[in-house]
């Protein structure tokens, strides 16, 4: 069923998931995601809730607009977690793709800002994944 | 059974309400239907997108006008 009349329902938020792992590059990814969250560019959401199959987190994610998944390295833990839970229509960003090596990349404000800018570009280009 | 429709009262919310009532009637359920339109109350459910549907206080559907058939599956 498609309803075409003007609707005051809330729009589907864009969601960001990050591995938030232990490595330096994962920390850069995590802090870049939080920058976007605080700037209200998109909403950071709990990857652990996806892994745990928490119903409310799963249902909100299914209704989301764009989904962006961030990994600190090529282990791609966040990507695999999303896929294992049945989510496939997301855009993926790997922090090491910016040319930084895991374990040899000190976390700096400059790098966090650079990663955040790349995330904003990915967000702008990402397809909307949710059903209306 | 308590069915709650979470939404500010637009066309999609109204359609979801109608579909939920249709589904509940078809299943012969003894139900109470409540429309939750206060955004502060909606947020308390943890819902980020409306319309949404909750059954006995538990959110079952978010951001979608489900058909009566889809709602029947959620109510069973």
Question: How would you sum up this structure, described in words?
Answer:
The complex is a heterodimer of chains A (132) and B (76). Chain A has 132 residues and is α/β, with parallel strands linked by helices. Chain A has one domain (15-125). Chain A is 40% helix and 11% strand. Chain A has helices at residues 24-38, 47-51, 55-62, 77-84, 109-125; strands at residues 15-18, 43-44, 67-71, 91-94. Chain A has a 4-stranded parallel β-sheet with strand order 2-1-3-4, sandwiched between helices. In chain A, helix 1 crosses helix 5 (109-125). The radius of gyration of chain A is 15 Å and the shape is globular. Residues 1-6 of chain A have low confidence and may be disordered. By secondary structure, chain B is α+β, with helices and mostly antiparallel strands. Chain B has a single domain (2-75), classed as Glutaredoxin. In chain B, strand 3 and strand 4 form a beta hairpin. The longest helix of chain B has 16 residues, at 11-26. The model of chain B has no long low-confidence stretch (mean pLDDT 94). The interface between A and B is medium-sized, with 22 and 24 residues.
